[in-house]
Amino acid sequence: MKHKLRKSSSIILSSLLAVAMVGCSSSNNSAATTPKTDASDPAWKEAQTTPFGAYPETVTYSVGQVATSYSALAGTPYEKDTATDNVWTRYFKDKLNIQNTTSFESNDGTDYSQKVSMAIVSGEIPDLMVVPDYATLQQLYENDLIADLTDAYENTASDRIKEIYDSYGGRVLDSAKFDGKLMAIPTTEISHGPGILWLRKDWMDKLGLAEPKSMADVENIITQFVEKDPGGNGAGKTLGLVVDNENVAGVSGGQFSFNNIFSLYGAYPKQWIDDGSGKAVYGSVRPEMKPALTKLSEMYKNNLIDRQFAVRTGDDRKALLTSGKSGSFMDNWWGSWTVADTLKLNPEAEWVSYVAPQSEDGSLTMFTGNPSSSYLVVRKGFEHPELAAKLVSVQYDYQRYQEKDAKALKQFEDYKSMNVGGSPLAINIDYYDAFYRNVDIMKEALETGDTSKLTSNEDLTAYNSYKKFLDSKKNGETPDSNAWAGYTSSITTASLVKSSNIKEVNPLFFGSTSSMTLKWPTLTKMELEMYLKIITGEQTPDAFDKFVDSWNKTGGEIITKEVNEAIANK
């Protein structure tokens, strides 16, 4: 679901960037191969002011890349492909007349973050580079190492790319602006949607239970599962909700978390939320947390939560569900993939998704995730800063929505089928509501067989997969578990979310501060211990008050001040 550079710890570069500035001021990564622009040449002007116009001479650009494993291509027509010669780079060469060279290449995550830091400190910044967090972007801007992309974006990004960014209501582009200037093209993180309750519908039918809406409904269903054992596990052997013991709540799109239950009480743990006056406060220390924790402790005491959740591993949690030991968990719209293996063990099992528990008005409130945690920057001094906007326009607009050449599309599909990336930009840019945006159009296509309204090439590929799933059901065949998971997440659950009354709370801050670097690990550990001890009954809910006091004294109060200063300075 998330194809982007994973957010790492903030990189502290202030003491080293003075060295970097000396190196970068003389850096000339692409001068030897980048042709000089002739401003009077209409071909050059068109290339620099349109999203899809090709350069009249080949423009070479250096880039820091996430490594791709090309070994998967062995024995195929692509087996000789490399980071600079593959399906994506050849496509960019054909469309824009550009060619990448690799400044550095590394694995995603921490390894990539370290390479970015090393490139900055050494003064050898690539012409284009994705930086993995806001702190690094800010340091690059403050030390005048990256190009202003305001005009490049306005003049060269495609209309669809601009529409995509507009779907976030300004939150994404604003995150990359300093002093009114757009200093990077942000990646996007689509909405994870609300938390979803997944239940064994075949068990509900056996017990005559209606679909849940309220918290009382949810508790009743799980009580019936545990006490009446519709799965035939034996008395006392059917477990309650399966829960993650490290992320009890507070992660957008969190698997096995209690976000929905906390939100019923107006609590948003781990999020920097508006206190009502425009000031940011840490949701985990707000008074709304206490009644939510009280409810969870009651549920645990009544066996509605897996009694051993505090010691379960990720594999344990999945096995409890796929083997039929538990019939309930909270996940997200893609939760069907979590339990897809159930169909292999028990083809009669039926997992169904619900937007629950709901408030009295039938709504469910969710907090939104960080809409952009990484940024595409251009080295200051690179002659073609517009190339960043052109690249994202070709990759995330033209190739995805407008390309009709069957041969080109097959090559991309071949790469995808072998789980091979290859693009110099291993990021994602998509609509905020991407997971349910076109679900009604897709359902219509599946009903009529008319695919003319599908908007992207990816939609057409998905259509073929979903049709095979529906055909297998129609013919009385056992569906492939992955086909079931794909259809259930992207059609059934996406439709459910789109038609539900979902309210959103937008956190105010996703970054880091100076005190967080030293104090946050301790505070995070304190918070997790508080959840586990109160929920399992080792401590009463009144222990929450002591936690709040300790949290503030151990650095929370200072960090809260720094967060609000950072918001004000932005």
TrEMBL record:
Q: Key word Signal present in the record?
A: yes
Keywords for this protein: Signal
According to the record, the signal peptide region is 1-31
Q: PANTHER family, from UniProt?
A: ARABINOSE-BINDING PROTEIN-RELATED (PTHR43649), POLYGALACTURONAN_RHAMNOGALACTURONAN-BINDING PROTEIN YTCQ (PTHR43649:SF33)
Task: Provide the protein name.
Answer: ABC transporter substrate-binding protein
